[in-house]
């Protein structure tokens, strides 16, 4: 086992995004959670391309630091939020079909909604809201996803002032990775990155080569 | 709610495969299960193109019949088989980036290995083995996936007679769908297909339009 910086698996991920940038599909991954019935649940999540956006990935605090958090946000399905509150664990599976690379990133999800008491997190939520396009913000005003469609009753096309802050239905979900399983089917290599917290609460990562 | 044939969601899936046939990525989906630690687990699974192969999808017994089973098989990770034995529930998430369609297919997984007592299932396993290429069969002879790599000890390149039947490590996994959630982001439509068994043990499917 080798002690490594979190940036090593992050770099692999950034390289994969770079080398698969022409493939539309590479901007989507699947996120598995556990449903309230105790069964697995799996959804597609879109990754936004703008790498300058701090909500998708934040640079390590300092060179060599083990700190790394992957930020994600997406349309909220209220059932799903309830499920995540009951069981916050999740695993991303991100496959790059062009470079034959797979990342499995597991960790726990923090739900930041309007009722959150942490001013820093609320600010993150607000920034995430304003970094999304005014058009995509309208999704949070539509009928609740997953409920039966109400017959022929036309749903009034929502409108929203671009300066209006996050609406109640907008949640920011933040995944904090604990473990990353990287598989490269071209080179037939597999690496397992595992984290543990040191006494300062910082994450330390180790990596190990395992059988593919 | 409307009573429908299983073939209706199957047809949507076949149409999606057809309209996305030029996209390499459309032949991969992600399968979520629950790990032995109780946390979600997510893996990429490749779908084989040959639609005449009965192991990928079998036609309904007769027109209007509700019977439908999706057959899948892939490289076996022994840890995973143990996990599936503890919790056989799984959810496929299959996203077609070109046509903006997502299928979430959940059900339970039947594990057919060499110790199975059912001659029909053993025959299915054997057919699945011989329908895979001789080269891909060699994967089942490699070192156990997920275990630490044994330093510099070179692993002897395996060889196998093409007429040799399934090796011990080869398992056929069969997913029997219970529920299908279909989302079309272009038409902004979402359909939920749910099954229940009738007194003859046949699956009856109903569909309902839900909010996307």
Structural account:
- The structure is a homodimer of 212-residue chains.
- The first copy, chain A, has 212 residues and is α+β, with helices and mostly antiparallel strands.
- Chain A has a single domain, classed as Pnp Oxidase, Chain A.
- Chain A is built from four helices and nine strands.
- Chain A has helices at residues 6-19, 78-86, 119-131, 134-137, and strands at 2-4, 28-34, 40-46, 70-73, 89-96, 101-112, 172-184, 189-197, 203-210.
- In chain A, strands 1, 2, 3, 4, 5, 6, 7, 8 and 9 form a nine-stranded antiparallel sheet that branches.
- In chain A, strand 2 (28-34) and strand 3 form a beta hairpin.
- The interface between A and B is large, with 41 and 41 residues.
Notable traits:
4 helices; nine-stranded antiparallel beta sheet; Pnp Oxidase, Chain A; homodimer; 9 strands; alpha+beta; 33% strand
Give the largest interface pair and sizes: A-B, 41 and 41 residues
CATH class of chain A reads Mainly Beta
Provide mean pLDDT of chain A, rounded: 80
Assign a percent range to the helix content of chain A: 10-25%
N-C termini distance of chain A: 16 Å
Low-confidence stretches of chain A: 49-68
H-E string of chain A: EHEEEHEEHHEEE
**Percent range for β-strand residues of chain A:** 25-35%
């Amino acid at each position: 086992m080798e002690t490594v910086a979190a940036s090593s698996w992050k770099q692999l991920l950034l390289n994969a995004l770079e080398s698969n940038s022409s493939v539309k599909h590479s901007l989507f991954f699947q996120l598995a959670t556990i449903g309230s019935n105790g069964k697995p649940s799996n959804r597609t999540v879109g990754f936004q391309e703008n790498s300058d956006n701090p909500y998708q990935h934040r640079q390590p605090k300092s060179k060599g630091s083990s700190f790394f958090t992957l930020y994600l946000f997406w349309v909220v399905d209220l059932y799903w939020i309830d499920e995540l509150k009951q069981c916050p664990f999740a695993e991303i599976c991100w496959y790059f079909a062009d470079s034959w690379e797979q990342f499995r990133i597991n960790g726990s999800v923090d739900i930041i909604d309007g009722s959150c008491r942490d001013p820093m997190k609320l600010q993150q939520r607000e920034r995430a809201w304003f970094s999304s396009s005014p058009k995509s913000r309208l999704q949070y005003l539509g009928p609740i996803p997953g409920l039966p469609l109400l017959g022929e009753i036309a749903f009034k096309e929502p409108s929203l002032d671009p300066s209006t802050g996050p609406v109640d239905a907008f949640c920011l979900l933040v995944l904090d990775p604990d473990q990353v399983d990287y598989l490269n089917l071209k080179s037939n290599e597999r690496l397992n990155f595992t984290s543990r917290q040191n006494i300062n609460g910082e994450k330390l990562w180790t990596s190990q080569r395992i059988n593919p």
